[in-house]
Amino acid sequence: MRRNATRRFAGSLLTALAVFGCRSAHTQRQRSPQTVEINRVRADDLARADGMTLDDALRQVRPDMLRPIAVERYAVTEMVRPSVYVDDRFVGGDDALRVIPIEDVVEVRLVRAFAARSLFGSSCPCAGGVLAVTTRARRVK
Known about the structure:
Blueprint: H1 2-20, H2 33-36, E1 40-42, H3 43-47, H4 54-61, E2 69-73, E3 76-80, E4 83-86, E5 89-92, E6 105-111, H5 113-120, E7 130-135, H6 136-140
Parallel strand pairs: 4-7
Antiparallel strand pairs: 1-6, 2-3, 4-5, 6-7
């Protein structure tokens, strides 16, 4: 009789663990809006900057987006800058930002290298990440 009670208790305990999981309240963190938006610059942020091009605005508003990162290839470390994609098309390196007017930009996202390879394909030149620029022309279509 005692053995049956022990089995029922163990079964109830396993059922409770299966239903509620092994998660506790401190392991379920909510993302703050700032964490989600950390790699994104919107048009209203760019409008506050002095300058005519996207390069000027990003240097004032978010210079960290233009900073090169260290990439190790074949035991050699080199500094690599992010590539620029405008409306999902490769346009070049960060020097391409000098010809994009601020008025045309809706948002700029910094996509890290690993995620950029999955978005733009394995042949993308994105070792330094990608600055993905969305323009107003893209939003209209």
